[in-house]
Prior knowledge:
Number of strands: 0
Amino acid sequence: MSKDDPLLDQADALMRRHRVYLAGAEATPDAVEANLEDLPLLTEEVSPEPPAAEAGELSHDRHNRLLTEQRAALAREMETWLDEQLPQLVILAMDGITDHLVSLITNRAREELLMRLDAVLQSAEKAGRDNSE
């Protein structure tokens, strides 16, 4: 390797030291110690949680998205229920209205129409008798 590029030389040395492990040979304690010294040391602690301000925004956004999804699910469920139940309820209500209407017409016909028809027949009968005399 060229002495002009120290970074490439360090990378090459690191790969040669670790190549022993890949080939399956046992490493000496000195080689293990040298490898540990070459490894970079992480000094910055990384938190899996976002900072408090960002967490609040994310939580608020997530809450709004959840509410929107819940409202959409409720709307879909209501539409499905209405599609299933409304025709049956309308038919049931119309059957009740029809039965009630038939009952009202029948009662009124008995109470009023029969008397009127009877009066018409009696008038016609009287007129027929008057004409025959």
